[in-house]
C-alpha cells in the first residue's frame, strides 16, 4: 500500500526538478501611468522575451495572483484542469488568470507594454468557473508571478513580485463637506490681485474714453473752422450816372480840350469798383449850406 504513495512523491519531485525558475520579477510600471493602481486593479509590465528558449508553440503563460501572506502556500497546478479560478479567491486566497499564448510574449511579437489585472468586471457578475480576470475584492496586498504551462504541466516560472497594495476607497461619511478655510496670506494675496485687476481695467477704460473723446472734439473743431472760413459774396449793383454840374460842362459846347480838366470846387470824384474788377469814376455835387450833410473835405463856393 505504500508503493503508490512513493511513486507519486517521486513523480512530484521529478516535476519540480524539471521546472525552470527564471530570475524575472514582475513589477508595476515605474513610469507615470494613468490608473496604474486603483481600488480594484493594477498594471503589470509585460514579460517580453522572458520565456524565449523555454516555450513551445502550444504552450501558454498564466498569471498567478495570491494574497501576500498566502503566496508561500501556493502550489502550481499539474494541468489546466486544476487551475484555481477567480471565484475561489476569498477561500483559496489565490487564483490564476490571463491565459495567453507564449508566442505573444516573445520579443518580436507586437503587443501592449502593460497588462491590467482585475479589469474584467463581468467576471464578478456571472457565476463562471473559468479563470477570468475579475476585480480584486480588497486592497490586498497581493503578489503575482508568471507560470509557463505545457501539455504535461508547468515548465517554467518567474519569481514572486513585491507586495502590491491597492488604493483604498474613502467612505462618503469620512468626507468633510465644509470647504477648507483659507489662510490669511491667501486672502490678502487674492484681495491685492483683485484690486490690481480693477485698477488696470479702470485705466484701460479711461484711456479708451479719452481717445474717443479727443477724436470727437477734433472732428467738431474741423467743422467750425470750415464754417468760419466760409463766406458769401454780396452783389454790388452798378452805380447810376449822375448829372454834371453846370459849371463842370464845356463852355462853349464843343470846345472841350483834350487834356483833363481839374474838377470843380463842388465836384467830388468817387471811385467805384465794377463787377469785372475795373475802376469806375463818377462825379456828384454834394449839397451845400444846409441842404444836407456836408462832408469835411468839400469846399462850396461863396454866394
TrEMBL record:
Question: InterPro entries given for it?
Answer: Uroplakin-3 (IPR024831)
Per the UniProt entry, the signal peptide is 1-16
In terms of superkingdom, the source organism counts as Eukaryota
What are the UniProt keywords, alphabetically?
A: Membrane, Signal, Transmembrane, Transmembrane helix
Under the cellular component aspect of Gene Ontology, which terms does the record hold? membrane
**In the UniProt record, does the keyword Zinc-finger occur?**
no
**Residues spanning the membrane:** 185-210
Statement: the UniProt record of this protein carries the keyword Repeat: no
Q: What is this protein called?
A: Uroplakin 3B
The species this protein belongs to is Hirundo rustica rustica
Amino acid at each position: 500500500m505504500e508503493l503508490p504513495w512513493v511513486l507519486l512523491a517521486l513523480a512530484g519531485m521529478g516535476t519540480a526538478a524539471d521546472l525552470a525558475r527564471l530570475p524575472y520579477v514582475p513589477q508595476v510600471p515605474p513610469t507615470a501611468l494613468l490608473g496604474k493602481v486603483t481600488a480594484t486593479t493594477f498594471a503589470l509590465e509585460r514579460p517580453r522575451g522572458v520565456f524565449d528558449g523555454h516555450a513551445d508553440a502550444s504552450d501558454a503563460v498564466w498569471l498567478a495572483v495570491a494574497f501576500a501572506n498566502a503566496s508561500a502556500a501556493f502550489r502550481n497546478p499539474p494541468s489546466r484542469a486544476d487551475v484555481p479560478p477567480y471565484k475561489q479567491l476569498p477561500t483559496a486566497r489565490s487564483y490564476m488568470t490571463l491565459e495567453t499564448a507564449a508566442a505573444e510574449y516573445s520579443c518580436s511579437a507586437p503587443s501592449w507594454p502593460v497588462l491590467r489585472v482585475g479589469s474584467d468586471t463581468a467576471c464578478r457578475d456571472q457565476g463562471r468557473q473559468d479563470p477570468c480576470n475579475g476585480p480584486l475584492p480588497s486592497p490586498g496586498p497581493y503578489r503575482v508571478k508568471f507560470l509557463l504551462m505545457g501539455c504535461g504541466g508547468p515548465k517554467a516560472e518567474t519569481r514572486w513580485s513585491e507586495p502590491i497594495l491597492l488604493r483604498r476607497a474613502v467612505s462618503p461619511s469620512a468626507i468633510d463637506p465644509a470647504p477648507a478655510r483659507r489662510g490669511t496670506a491667501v486672502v490678502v494675496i487674492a484681495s491685492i490681485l483683485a484690486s490690481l485687476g480693477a485698477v488696470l481695467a479702470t485705466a484701460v477704460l479711461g484711456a479708451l474714453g479719452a481717445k474717443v473723446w479727443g477724436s470727437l472734439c477734433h472732428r467738431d473743431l474741423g467743422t467750425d473752422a470750415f464754417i468760419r472760413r466760409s463766406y458769401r459774396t454780396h452783389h454790388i449793383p452798378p452805380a447810376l450816372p449822375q448829372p454834371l454840374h453846370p459849371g463842370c460842362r464845356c463852355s462853349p459846347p464843343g470846345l472841350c480840350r483834350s487834356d483833363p480838366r481839374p474838377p470843380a470846387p463842388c465836384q467830388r470824384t468817387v471811385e467805384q469798383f465794377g463787377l469785372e474788377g475795373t475802376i469806375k469814376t463818377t462825379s456828384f455835387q454834394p449839397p451845400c449850406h444846409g441842404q444836407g450833410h456836408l462832408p469835411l473835405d468839400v469846399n462850396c463856393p461863396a454866394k
